[in-house]
Amino acid sequence: MSIRRLVRVTAGGVAGLLVLVSITGCGGGQAEPVAVPSTEPTRERVVVPKAPVESGEMFVVYEDAESPEAVEGRALLTDATLLEELAEDVNAMLVLPVDVPVNGRQCDEANAYWSPSEQAMTICYEDAELSRRIFDEAGEADVVASTLGAERATFYHELGHAVIDLYDLPFTGREEDVADQLAAVLLLQPDDDGQVDPENIAAARAYALMFQGYSEQEGGGAEEFPFWDVHEYDLARMYNFQCWIYGSDPEANASMVADGLVPEERADSCEDEFDRMSRAWYEMLEPHLRDE
Question: Record's InterPro entries (predicted)?
Answer without folding.
Answer: DUF4344
